[in-house]
Design brief:
The protein is of the alpha+beta class. The protein is built from 15 helices and 8 strands. The strands form 3 sheets. Strands 1-2-3-4 form a 4-stranded antiparallel beta sheet. The radius of gyration is 30 Å and the shape is extended.
Length: about 425
Amino acid sequence: MSSNVPIGATNVTAPTPQNTPMQHAPISAGLSRPTVPDITEDKEEEDEEDEDEPVGSSLQSAAMLGLVQGKLQSLIGRSSGYVESLPDDVKRSVEALKGVQLQQNELHNKFKRECLELEKKYNDLQAPLYERRNAVLSGAAPPTTEEIEAGEKQSAEDDEDYTPLPKDSTAASAIPEFWLTALRNHIGLSELITDRDAAALKHVIDIRLSYLDNLSQLDAKPGFKITFLFSPNEFFENETLEKTYYYQEKAGYFGDMAYDHAVGTEIKWKEDKDLTKEFEIKKQRNKTTNRTRVVRKSRPTESFFNFFTPPTPPGEEAIANGDIEEEELEELEEKVEMDYQIGEDLKEKIIPHAIDYFTGKALEYDLMDEDEDAFEDLDDEDEDDFDDESDSDAPAPVKRRGGKGAARNGGDKVNPEECKQQ
């Protein structure tokens, strides 16, 4: 279905599409007016008319606009009657195209499954490198001269002021709090890790990625698993904590694998060490006997370890029956989306690029992604606030990017990607 509504078309030979467009109708952009002002009209006169317009009239127009938009929202997905009015021969062609589309969908599902199998293949090929990484960072094995030289070469490319290390020793030496530092240097996860969590996350030995073995079974839910390995600690009995993400059996409407649900390990907390709860001790006095007692109450609190108790997506039946209020549904959907995004970031970013998150180098790229998302399209009113300098011979100023990430990696260092201000 096209996202463009041919309002200005002068030679319309077919009725409207079967369904009302999913986006809001562009009434607020002025397209509801019966005529279009001539481009030669004096803009100053328009501004004066806007200033003289009563406040009550503006409020009334806004209220009317809201009513019309609400009405259009109720029309979303409703048939315009066009397809139903077609001759039977044409309808048969329409149904035939649906059959062709089903064949396309089946092929695309196989393609996405094979993509997951390819990811699994190369994840398995990287397993020896992940084992080597763990051996070096844990101090179980010393780094080789070749590994050090390759790392120093990369450091010199990243920072022209880099000073090579003395070559007098290659002894094994563990990197303290490696995974805690890497996790805290991720923009999203840093907001979830409390000081109490940090004491437990210092015991992370390794974080591993694996794919489910049912990728070739088209009727089974594919997915991946994130495994946290811990050394003995004062907080819980588990040596490993796992989180498994499941996709739906078939790819989503627009081709990507659609998230279905997640399952986490039940944490066996030691007494009074549950980081997902806060405990409060109160004294209560009996009004009749004047005796006192101590009551210990717990309440949920924010913690990274809530990650292993994922939110449950609402069922279609519950949504259809209206069992969940709209506000509650939106809040739950946000939690599910964030939970899935954390899993994807662990899979795609932190695990394969752990050293870059430890040093902070990866922050430069994370901040770049955030900067791109922060830009919005300018409308005509916004553009009027800026002078046109296209005739100027002066070069446009360079916008430096990298923000805090660049600062953490060394003072005046600037990310190589630069763009000119528009």
